[in-house]
Amino acid sequence: MRTKRTIRSILQTWRHRIIRASGFFLTQTANPLPGNETLINSDPDNTPPEPVEPTVAAALSGWRRARVRVRFLFKNLRHRSREYLGWLLARVIHRRHYASSLRIDEVSTILICRINGRIGNTLFLTPLIRYLHQLLPAAAIDLALAYPAAAELLRGLPGVRRIIVFPHRQPHRLGRYLAALRSLRACRYDLAIDPTEFSTSGRAMLALTRSRYRLGFASRAQWAPLTHAVPLPLQAMHQAVRPLYLPHRIFGTPLEPKAVRLWLPLPENELAEGRRLIAQAIAPERLRTPSNVFGFFAHAANLKLIDRSWWVTFWNAFLALEPQAIPVEFLPSAAHAPTDQRFASLHVRSTRGLTAAIAATRVFISTDTGPMHLASTTAVPTVGLFLASDPGLYGPLKPDDLAIDIGRHSAGEIAQACQRTWIAAVLNDSVAAHPQPIR
Question: Residues 50-102: pLDDT tens digits?
């Protein structure tokens, strides 16, 4: 009877939840989850999100605007359904009592579970890996991931012992999934970590591990068998910073969010190969030098794609300011046509090779997608262009990086901001020391 009443309560709440499209973005006009739980898409500081103006609608054609609205609607519904499922499971399983501290000397083996197929979310784990390695330099860290090229991308990362890759959204690969699960359960761990607060697959993986301690975020929708839990931070945090909040609280160790960086150290031989690729791409022009290369990645999936006309306008404006700059486009595949035929282009199949080639440029500008995050692991100033995501949660992290909402600024204004970054890069001066009005 209790379960039936719970389900009926959920359905009644769902019936009265109204999700309306405000131009381009979705906003909410409903109450939060039972028990005043904050929705997973809302601000972590428990303040209601302000309606977002449809600032980028003009950048999209009519049919793409319709697709954007539909995709946002389904994504929103999927997240709500997943949160309700977690809340229901937590009610059925009953709430557990969690410990809130752990001694460092009790941990020598660690497992981090992040079953997500995106390169950005995989790279967002690197600050956590670095933090744990610095905290526990003798500890062995294993990773359970779903990004297909994770083993190649993160190989040789200090502190990492094993990378177990699960098939992502491939139900026909059941054999590979079971093999990965056997590999996961072959080891016992002192500590297993679910670094996100909303991943159903992460919670399931945590439940399947053979671990003495299990650490994650505490919430009313938390149903995983955690032994240690940390409440969600009150302030909004970048998605690469938030996982560090777990060991920071549980071990009582310092954390400086503004100092967090994505981490992908490359050996000199890989960096040299990246410089060779860039030199080869611009070789036909005798007077061109790699020090003037402005790399860019113009492609993205679905909501994040920026129209070709915007790029043409941007490059015309930037080259009028810096005529010596050499735009070089990085292509997602060898079959992709360049965005602008005036410029050199190249395709690098390896994620590490792509990172090394980006590291050979002077500045790199990209849509909000994988290459932007790869660029942020290098010393190269990175400019991220955002259409649909929150730059504060997903933008590049270095002090001289820029995260720009292109719906609020013209291509000419963004070209001027990039010029300041361009000049500061050659002067070895931090852009953070200069006013950046469109950040």
Answer: 333 334 444 455 665 666 667 667 767 766 776 766 667 766 776 678 899 99
Residue 439 lies in a domain: no
Indicate whether 242 and 276 sit together in one domain.
no
Do 326 and 288 form a contact (C-beta atoms < 8 A)? yes
The 10 Å CB-count burial string (b at 16+, else e) for 162-196 is ebbbbbbeeeeeeeeeeebeeebeebebbbbbbbb
- Rg from Cα positions in the chain: 23
Reported as a single tens digit per residue, the pLDDT across 92-147 is 776 678 899 999 999 999 999 999 999 999 999 999 999 999 999 999 999 999 99
β-bridge pairing 109-114 and 189-193: parallel
Backbone angles phi, psi at 185, to 5 degrees: -85, -5
Q: How many CB atoms lie within 10 A of CB 369?
A: 22
Query: Rounded to 5, what percent of the chain is helix, strand, coil?
Result: 40, 15, 45
Question: How is 381-418 classified by DSSP, letter by letter?
Answer: -EEEEESSS-HHHHS--STT-EEEETTSS-HHHHHHHH
What are the helix and strand counts (H, E) for the chain? 14, 14
- Domain carrying residue 51: 2-93
According to the model, what pLDDT value does residue 245 have? 96
- The domain boundary residue, chosen from 43, 71, 93: 93
Same domain? 122 vs 168: yes
* Half-sphere exposure in the Cβ direction for 239 (13 Å, CA): 20
CB 423 within 8 A of CB 434: no
How many structural domains does the chain have?
Answer: 3
- Is the confidence at residue 201, as pLDDT, over 90? no
Q: H/E element holding 273? A: helix 268-281
Average pLDDT over residues 238-243: 96
As a whole number of Å, the end-to-end CA separation of the chain is 54
In a domain, 22, yes or no: yes
If asked whether residues 291 and 190 sit together in one domain, one would say no
Longest dimension (CA), the chain: 80
Question: Do residues 119 and 226 share a domain?
Answer: yes
